[in-house]
Amino acid sequence: MIENFQRPSKEFDLGGVVPWGRRFDEYELFFALDDVPPGVAILDAGGGPASFAVEAAARGFEVTAADPIYALDGETIRQRFEETAVAMRAGMRAAAYRFKWNFYGSEERVHRRRRDALEMFLPDYERRRSRRYVPASLPALPFGDGAFDLALSSHFLFLYGDDLDGAFHIAAMRELMRVAREVRVFPLINLDGRPSSHLPVVIRDLEKDGFEPELVPVPFEFQIGATRMLRVRRPAGSG
Ligand SMILES: C[S@@+](CC[C@H](N)C(=O)[O-])C[C@H]1O[C@@H](n2cnc3c(N)ncnc32)[C@H](O)[C@@H]1O
Predict the structure, then answer these.
(1) Which residues line ligand 1 (CB under 6 A)?
(2) Does pLDDT of 14 surpass 50?
(3) CATH number at residue 165
(4) Looking at the domain assignment, is residue 220 inside a domain?
(5) Which of 77, 155, 156, 162 to mutate to test the pocket of ligand 1 (most atoms within 8 A of CB)?
(6) pLDDT at 120 over 80
C-alpha cells in the first residue's frame, strides 16, 4: 500500500479550457523565437485573447490565430475573460508555491499582463476578424497542407491534459504538422504542475510518423519544472 502518495491538490477550478491570453515577449521566451526571422508565416493555434498576433504583426511576422472562441463577438470574449479571471486569480494565489516569480513578480502583475493582452487583442480582433483570427478547433483546421512555416501552441495542449485525452493530443499534433513545417508547444506540464502523461505517447507517435520531435530548453520558467518546449520538425530533405 502506498501511504504517503498524494496527488497535488486541484487549486485551479477552471471548468475546462479558458480564454487567458499572453503577450509577445512571453511567447518569445516560451518558444525561444530568437531563431525565427520576420516574414515567417506563423499559426498561433488556440490563440485565444492573446496579443501575440497583433504585437508580432508590428514586428513584421505574419501571424494567423485559430481558436473556437473566434466564433464569438468581442464583448462575449471579454465576458468570458472576466469569468476566467476570478477562478484563475484564486487558483494562482492558492498554487503560488508551485510557481517561480522572478519574471512576473506577483499574481497581480500576471493579471495586469493578461488584461493588457486582452485590451490589445480586442480592437485588432474587431478590425481583422476572420482574416487574422480564424474560428477553428483542433484537431481539424481549415488550412491547406504546409500553409505555415511554424505553428505554435501555447498553454493549451498538455496543460489541459486532464480535459483532453491522449488520442486528442495525437490527432492535434498530426494536424499541426500537416499545416506547418515545424511545430512548437509550451508548456509540457499540466495545470496541477505534473509532467503531462500524454507527452511520451505523443513523441512516440510523431517518431512513428517519421517526424523529429525534440525537447528543447527555453529561457523561461513560471510553473516550476516547465523549462522545455516540444519542437517537431520534418527530417532534412523531406520538404
Ligand atoms: C489558456 S488559453 C491560451 C491562449 C494563448 N495561446 C496564450 O497562451 O496566451 C487556451 C485557448 O485554447 C482554446 N481552445 C479550446 N479548445 C480548442 C481547440 N479544440 N482547438 C484550438 N483551441 C482551443 C481556448 O478557446 C482558449 O482560447
Answers:
(1) 17-22, 45-48, 50, 67-69, 137-138, 154-156
(2) yes
(3) 3.40.50.150
(4) yes
(5) 156
(6) yes
